[in-house]
Design brief:
alpha/beta, TIM Barrel, 8-stranded parallel β-barrel, two-stranded antiparallel sheet, 12 strands, disordered N terminus, binds ligand PBG
């Protein structure tokens, strides 16, 4: 289905360990008759290996040369081919009709697994996944009630273990979300740019352990805001744009300083991409990328995430900065701005309810597109599967494939490790 790439634990080597060596294969592969080879491999293996394994015995045991075989056929003594298989019978009562006359039968291209695989337009691979990770100050991991299977990871050990697991199945990109103690929250969110804060500490730890890990960070004030908003809240409830952008720049620089590869502003303030680009460049971080949350909608599907971080807005909603779910064209305005301001990657969020918007961006920019399969999308599938209403593996892989088909290059998904494990298993 997809290229094995350099995915640790997923490749042919694993198939060999599971099924035996070339030597083992040679022993079990019987050879029948002159030039006719039948292979009964002990388990599914790439065809190339089978051919290699039997090549030697054919040459040694074949009594006739190619010339002799050819001469036989020319003389009219072609060896017998297997009989034409009998036509499978239809159930009794099937109407006897003459076939419809139609030149195009699209089902012809779907009739076998090999044909379906050959014509598959979209693929998914662990290389397309970005794994969101929740971290907290604790030593132990703590389960997240609204996101079964996800945890707030202890920043020192739990985090490292989870990243080990991810890399083992080929997921080498993560994005960090901190659960900040209430005592460190304030109305101006200044903890967001503390160089020794939770996120910078996690980045340094991860980079020390896994230098080639791609680390994305979230740029927004909500985990640090005593109001639970992405920006600074004025007395009358207004979210202050330019003052917030000032804070976000400091936050992005602190993250870059700690070693972040990609900073991702999720706040939806106007002009933040350009301002952050400038701040990063001024601080010497020309090589740090910006993944802009370009079309981020004011969505009910963020509910479980806000429980995970305890970051629910203390009042009101986020509709003055996040986009109206009813709007499509408006995503183009955001796209043009983020592009002009120097974004490297454009994001659509949530993913499944906004596949049309992913396609809109795909058709209107040459930049890579990311899509965020958000907490609510994750919990919905988990809950349906837990209730026995859905086949979880099929639903997850279909949802990810659909997001790719709509035009996303990379997907932020809480299913990243599980989905990568399933994909690796399919390859063997
Ligand atoms: C906050 C932020 C949110 C998410 C990512 N960054 C929540 C929000 O905007 O309220 C949501 C992710 C998810 O639901 O999985 N800046």
């Amino acid at each position: 289905m997809m290229a094995a790439a350099a995915t640790p634990g997923c490749g042919v080597s694993q198939a060999l360990t599971a099924c035996g060596s070339h030597e083992g294969l040679r022993r079990v592969a019987p050879v029948f008759g002159p030039g006719v080879v039948s292979v009964s491999a002990p388990c599914k293996l790439p065809r190339k290996l089978n051919v290699q394994a039997v090549a030697e015995p054919i040459a040694k045991s074949s009594p006739r040369t190619i010339e002799e075989c050819e001469a036989n056929v020319v003389a009219g003594n072609a060896p017998a081919a297997p009989p034409v298989p009998a036509k499978p019978s239809a159930p009794e009562g099937t109407p006897a009709i003459s076939p419809l006359v139609m030149p195009a039968r699209p089902r012809r291209n779907r009739r076998s697994p090999a044909l379906r695989a050959a014509f598959q337009e979209t693929t998914i691979s662990p290389a397309n996944f970005i794994l969101p990770l929740f971290v907290h100050e604790g030593e132990q991991n703590a389960p997240i009630g609204a996101m079964p299977g996800c945890q707030r990871l202890g920043w020192r050990h739990g985090l490292i273990d989870e990243v080990y697991k991810a890399r083992d199945v080929g997921v080498n990109s993560v994005v960090l979300f901190p659960k900040v103690p209430d005592a460190l929250k304030s109305s101006t969110g200044d903890e967001a740019y503390n160089p020794d804060g939770l996120v910078p500490r996690c980045i340094r730890l991860l980079k020390d352990k896994f230098p080639d890990l791609v680390i994305y960070t979230d740029v927004a004030l909500d985990p640090y805001s005593s109001d639970g908003h992405d920006g600074i809240v004025r007395e009358d409830g207004l979210i202050m744009n330019d003052e917030t952008v000032h804070q976000l720049c400091k936050q992005a620089v602190a993250q870059a300083q700690a070693g972040a590869d990609v900073v991702s502003p999720s706040d939806m303030m106007d002009g933040r991409v350009g301002a952050i680009r400038k701040a990063l460049d001024l601080a010497g971080h020309q090589d740090v990328s910006i993944m802009a949350y370009t079309a981020k909608y004011a969505s009910a599907f963020y509910g479980p995430f806000r429980e995970a971080l305890d970051s629910n807005p203390r009042f009101g909603d986020k509709k003055t900065y996040q986009m109206n779910p009813a709007n499509y064209r408006e995503a183009l305005i955001e796209t043009r701005m983020d592009e002009a301001e120097g974004a490297d990657i454009l994001m659509v969020k949530p993913a499944m309810p906004y596949l049309d918007v992913i396609r809109l961006l795909r058709d209107n920019t040459a930049l890579p597109i990311s899509a965020y399969q958000v907490s609510g999308e994750y919990s919905m599938i988990r809950a349906a599967a837990a209730a026995g209403m859905l086949d979880e593996k099929k639903a997850v892989l279909e949802s990810l494939l659909s997001i790719r088909r709509a035009g996303a290059d990379v997907i932020l998904t809480y299913f990243a490790i599980q989905a990568a494990q399933w994909l690796c298993a399919e390859r063997v």
